[in-house]
Design brief:
- 48% of the residues lie in helices and 5% in strands.
- It has 342 residues and is mainly alpha-helical.
- The strands form 2 sheets. It has a two-stranded parallel sheet with strand order 1-2. Strands 3-4 form a two-stranded antiparallel ribbon.
- The chain is globular.
Length: 342
C-alpha cells in the first residue's frame, strides 16, 4: 500500500484544517499523553480521566473533562508554519507539552469535582466569578503564587491560580514543600491541593461531560485563515527611541573599541535573529505578551534600518545583551503602567 503524497506548502496553507485528518494517534503527542496518564496514576488520581483532542489552542471548556491540545503540535510541518506566523510556541518541546498538560489537568480536576464551590478553595484562590481579564498585569515573583507557566500566569485569575498550583503539585520529583517553604501563601495553596487530592483519589467525579470545543474535525478554515488577522500594535513608544537605539549600536561600534577591519552587520538582522527567544523569555519573566514583544521588536528593527545602525561582528554578544536589557525594560514598563512611556 503506497503512502499518500505529502501536501505541497501552498496546499497545506489553503486546505481546510479538518481535511488534514489530524489525530493524536501516531504522532509525538501519543506517547506524551500516555506518559501523562501514568503521572496521574502515580499521583493517586485514579477515577478521573480526561478526554484529549486536537483543538485550536490549549484549553478545557468549563464544566467538562476535555483537554484541548493545539493542532499544530501534531505535525512538524504545522509547527513550522506556526513558528513562522506566530513565533511563540506553547509546547515547543516534550517537557513543555507535559507542563501545559499538567496545567490543563488542574482545570479538569476543578470542574470535575466542583472545587470552586468549596469554601476553603474560595478563601485561598478567590471567586471563580471574578472577571477573567486577558490583559492582566502580574506582580513578578509575588510570593502569593506558584511559578509554573511563563508570564506569572497564576496571577491571571483564581481558576488559573488553582491550575498552576495543581501543576506544581503534580510535577514529578518536584520538592514543592522545600521550594515554597518561604512563600507561606503559595505553600498554603499547595498543602490544600495535596490534602484535597488525597481525599478525591478514589472518588468518582461529579462532572464527566466530554463536549469537544473547536475540534479539528470540525474546522472548515484553512491555515491561512486561522493565522489571518491584524498584526498587534506594540503600543506607545517612549520619546527618544532613536537615541536609545543609537546608544546601543553606536556606542558598541566605536572604532577605538573594535577593529575597523571587523565586518559590520545590520542592527535589524540581529534583532530579527533574537526575536523568537526574546518573545519567550521576556514573557516568562515580565508577563509582556509574546505578540506584543514581536510587534515591538519589528518596530525597533525598522527604526534601526531607518537610522542605518550596524554593529561589529566581534561585539555581537555585548550588543545582544544590551538589546535584551533594553527590550526587557520597555516590556516591564508596559506591564506595570500600561504604556512604554513613563
Amino acid at each position: 500500500m503506497s503512502m499518500p503524497a505529502p501536501f505541497h506548502e501552498a496546499n497545506l496553507r489553503t486546505t481546510p484544517i479538518r481535511d488534514l485528518n489530524l489525530t493524536i494517534q501516531g504522532t509525538r503527542l501519543e506517547p506524551l499523553v500516555r506518559q501523562f496518564e501514568d503521572e496521574l496514576e502515580q499521583k493517586g488520581i485514579r477515577r478521573l480521566r480526561p478526554r484529549f483532542h486536537l483543538s485550536t489552542e490549549w484549553g478545557v471548556p468549563f464544566g467538562t473533562v476535555v483537554i484541548g491540545i493545539p493542532f499544530y503540535l501534531a505535525r512538524p510541518d504545522l509547527l513550522a508554519v506556526h513558528a513562522e506566523r506566530v513565533g511563540h510556541i506553547e509546547g515547543a518541546g516534550n517537557e513543555d507539552i507535559l507542563r501545559y498538560l499538567r496545567h490543563e489537568m488542574g482545570h479538569v480536576v476543578n470542574y470535575a469535582y466542583k472545587l470552586y464551590e468549596d469554601e476553603e478553595w474560595v478563601k485561598l484562590f478567590g471567586s471563580l466569578t471574578q472577571p477573567y481579564l486577558e490583559d492582566y498585569r502580574p506582580e513578578p515573583f509575588s510570593r502569593r503564587y506558584v511559578l509554573h507557566l511563563p508570564g506569572f500566569y497564576a496571577q491571571k485569575h483564581p481558576d488559573e491560580d488553582w491550575s498552576e498550583t495543581f501543576a506544581v503539585w503534580m510535577t514529578p520529583a518536584r520538592d514543592w514543600r522545600m521550594q515554597y517553604s518561604d512563600w507561606p501563601e503559595a505553600l498554603a495553596k499547595l498543602n490544600y491541593c495535596d490534602r484535597k487530592l488525597s481525599e478525591l483519589g478514589d472518588c468518582e467525579p461529579l462532572v464527566s461531560a466530554v463536549e469537544l470545543d473547536e475540534d479539528v474535525s470540525e474546522l472548515t478554515i484553512s491555515l491561512d485563515q486561522y493565522y489571518a488577522g491584524p498584526v498587534p500594535e506594540p503600543g506607545d513608544f517612549p520619546i527618544g527611541l532613536e537615541g536609545s537605539l543609537r546608544a546601543i549600536f553606536e556606542d558598541l561600534g566605536h572604532a577605538e573599541e573594535s577593529d575597523p577591519a571587523v565586518p559590520r552587520h545590520s542592527a535589524s538582522s540581529l534583532i530579527q535573529r533574537l526575536e523568537r527567544n526574546l518573545m519567550a523569555d521576556v514573557f516568562r519573566w515580565t508577563g509582556h505578551f509574546p505578540e506584543r514583544t514581536r510587534a515591538l521588536l519589528r518596530r525597533l528593527a525598522q527604526c534601526a534600518d531607518d537610522l542605518k545602525q550596524v554593529y561589529p561582528e566581534d561585539r555581537e554578544l555585548e550588543t545582544a545583551l544590551a538589546l535584551t536589557t533594553f527590550v526587557t525594560s520597555l516590556a516591564t514598563n508596559y506591564v506595570h503602567r500600561g504604556s512604554y512611556v513613563l
